[in-house]
Structures are given as structure tokens and as C-alpha cells.
């Protein structure tokens, strides 16, 4: 990335530095901010007595080496200064050309902590040499003691029951074995969250129908992958006897057992004493423990005596490092506020896995074994070894373990109504669909535990990822796309095998978004029937094909016209694939017509829906201020004529292919508003349809 170079402009006397923004306002300056500058500007500003610019220059030289920014003699020294972008105090400086970053850290005991130069610096700590060291174990035990004694939301009111099967670790010298428990057997246990290896890679140790008896007698230590052995060692070190690992505690080749135990996922993770997350995502055959790379260690930053005097301090005889000012390469941290941008990818690859999403949210406490350090996340706190407390004052909004808890959802329902809970579910789906699943058929099972939490509050039937009580709003989803989401749009396809009816967000691969609005939706159609056939006992689990909706409402018949069929066009997005002939007069009247395609047909030859094909726009709902009408774009299903001929259905059968919104300007005139209404009445025909 490059930015047009701007000549250095000296800061006017009495004004904040126009290079780094120093001094930042203590109240307003706590928010996130980004500034683009150049190394030469920092140096020039430092020479003109800006203390923060001088410190940043010194930090770059200490951590990266000044010449590393000038890669191969290139003169581009563009730098990005990021303040508080983690929603906690932090300062990171990134060189675009060198693709390197510097993190500025201050000791919590530093006398400079309250100085205006350091208000955006992260309080930092030295990190142990490895994640399995005695020091790291002590840090974890401290977190557990703190959580047990002071965190009311993290501690169960009574001792939970063990899952149906657990790995019994016995004592340190005992042979491990699979234990089948009696119902309601109390006990503490730990869960392991890990990435499954692909079948073509190292086969994962699993419990199968033909080895469950031998596993109950004993499990060979040498036959376990490194991650499992590490989890066993760490669980024993914490003094916990039982460990739950999905591949070992569910019979993997018994579909009935898998569905039955998978349906209990919510209680399995919710009742766990702790969940260990092998967050590096290196595969189970490799250790989840790491030794820290030296580049992530704190490097003391020597501050010139002249600068110390400007800061109101005198030079100490043992060196400026006594002031606890450090730099280091940034460590990998969890993104906690993904709901603000659901398509944002997590830096810890394990957290990009679909199954791990609910494992993380359902577990009251999770310990992450990251690539450099340990991180702790519970309902009330988030801490890591390098910075200590990263607990946010906006914890209800940014703490994923708290946001989706039944107690939090109950409070939300009491304060704002069930509609707000349904909206939060929509946000959850937006996050979830941006994640990766190895097996496409897991789309509902991997979310079933969270769905049960929401069902307990909404009190509504779950229909292919939507809630019957809020079905109209639930139908108004579209594939996430636009110029910033080309990768997501390229992946927008139907799954290889059927997993959901076309009206469900699960009928497409890739991230989706909902057309949520602060103004209530006016329902413009009637739901006569909603039917989904479950594949097993879990009401929030996998489906069998055949789900449908019977709807009655206004249908506008039109034709589809592709806008750009140039393969590989950078302009291709869900918004540019096709247009609807009937809406063209609306565009001419300066109304906003937004058409989202569900599937990317750009590389299909021949096109599954030829240009000029007849399609239907089915009116689902409308909103005011500005006036907006929401339609599903439907194509007649190939099953329609067959079902009509056999008298299986008296209604034409359609499949969803997109969504279209017709909207007046933000301050719609009465003329524009009435034009939309008249257009709907003129072109719409009342029909009953079946949507599959």
C-alpha cells in the first residue's frame, strides 16, 4: 500500500503535532485513531522538539533498524501510526514497505505512565520463555483462582454433571482410558478445542465402533497426537481428572451417536471448568506449546537526557530503561469485537473455524495457547501474558462470552423486546458465516448449541437458521459483497450437497448480511406454512431435504438482465451481477434500486439462468423513513411443473436467487413515496407460492 507523499509542514505553535497528534486529549484521545506519515516527517518533527515523534523514531531504530524501512534503497518510508485500535491503550507503528510493526509498551510501574506522551501506550509485561513453563502454569493458576473467587458470572451455582463420555486421566502415572459415566454424575472436566486434521493428512485418533471397548480399557499414549498429549499433561497439572475431546468422546462412525451427543454441545462446553484452545491451528499432530521467538521480547528504550528533562524527570544512573519504556514486535491477539465487522478474519487461525466459534462462546472460560503467549478469556475478563488485563469497559458489547449468554439475552429482551434478541442472532449469523467449515453439512450442527441458547429466550421454532416468529426479517439476508469483499463474492456458491432450502442463509457458501434497520418492518406477506424435516433428534441440527415455505403476497413478474459478464472483472459483486427490467422506471425516477445476487454465476458456462429469463419479485416487507420495499428474487423451480402435474401442490414452486430493495431518497418527497406505492400496486399480483 502506498500514499501520495506530502511535503513536511511544521506544526504551528500551541497546536497538536501534525505528524503524531501529540499531545492527545486525555478524554477524547482515548479513542482509536490512525495517522499516515513518513519517517522523514517523524525525524523533522522530532528535531522540532515533539517528544512523541522522537520516541517513535528511537523505537523504530531500536526494534527494526532504521534502514529496514528503506527496502532495497526504496525511498518510500510510509508509516502508519495506530492509537488504541485494540479498544484499549495501544500504540503500533507499521512500515508498509518493510511489512514490519513496532509495539510501544510501558511498564505499569513506570513513573512516566501518566505523562501525556504515554497515554496511548499499552501497559506491558515480560512474557515467559514458553507456554508450558512453570511460570506460565503459575499465571494460569492465578487466573483460575481470581476467576473462582471474584467472577460471579463465570462460576456455576452447583457442580455440573460430567458428559456421557470423558477421558479419565487418573493420576500422573495412571493409564488414561475412556470412561462412560452414569447420568447426572457430578464432576469437573476440561474441554479441548482444536483443529481436526484432514483425512488426507495425519489421521486423527478417534473413538469408533470397533475400538470403543478397547478405549474403555486403556488408550495408548504413543498413539495420541501431540496436541492431545499436551492437553492431558496440562489438565493433570491443573489438578483436573477428566478431559473431553470431541473425537475421543463421540463415536465418530455412529451417526446416531454423533447426532445425539452433538445435540448436547451447548451443555458440554457451557459446563466445562475450562476449555483449552490449541489456537495456533498447526494440526493436532504438532504440540500446542511454543517457545517464544526472541524478537517478541521487550527491548528497553533508552531516552536521551534532554528528553527526560522535557518530560520533567532527571536521568538515572542505571540507564533510561529504569523508566520502563519498551518496544517489541507485536504479539498475536484475539479480535474481540468481530460483530463490528463480521467478515474480519481472526489472526489466530483456530478462531476462523466454524466449530470453534460456538466452543468459544459457550465456554465460560477459555485458555488460548497462541503462537507467542497464553491468553485468558472468561465471561468477565480478557487477559494475556504480555499486557495483563485487557478487560473492556464496554464488556457487554465486546465480550463474546457475555453477549450471547441466556442471562444477557434475557436482560436484552426485558429492556428492548424480543426483536432486539432476534437482531442479535442476525449479527451472530453474520459472524458465523464468515468462518470456515471442513464439512459443509456441519452448517447447522456447528451452531446448534448457540441456537438453543437463543431458542430458550425467543421461544420460537427454529427453521433452517431462522426463527419462525421473526421469519419476515430473517428472509431479508444477502451475500456480503462489494468492492471490498471480492474474495467473499468469488466464493458465493451453492454447497456441493443440499443442506438448506434456498430461502435460508445456509443455502449459500460464504458470509451473509441482514438488512437490519432501526425502523420496524411492516410485514407485507403472510406465512401460511413453514416446514423443515430434521435429520436427527436435535431441533437445531442437520436437516433433510424438502424444507419449504408457503407464502401469500404480491408478486411482480419481470425479466433478469446481466450487467457484466466479463470473466474476472474487478467490478463483479453481488450488486453488479444482474438487473431487473421492471425496476428500470424506478431508477429513472431517481429511486434507489439495490439488487443482490445470491450466487456468483460469473464463471459458469453456460449460465444456469440465461439472461432474459423470467423471474419473480416477491414482496416481503416495507419500512418508513426512507420508504423501502424488500423483495425476494425468485426463479421458477424445475420441481414446480412436476409437482403441479402430479397434484402434489396447487402452488407454483420457486427457488430464491437474490434480494432487491427499492428505496426512496433519505428525505423522500411525497411524490417519490407514492410512486413506489403505485408501482407495487400496478405491477404486483396477489399469489400463493411455495418456496423451496
UniProtKB/TrEMBL annotation:
The protein's name in its UniProt record: HET-domain-containing protein
Tree of life domain: Eukaryota
Residue span(s) of domain Heterokaryon incompatibility: 189-359
Organism: Sodiomyces alkalinus (strain CBS 110278 / VKM F-3762 / F11) (Alkaliphilic filamentous fungus)
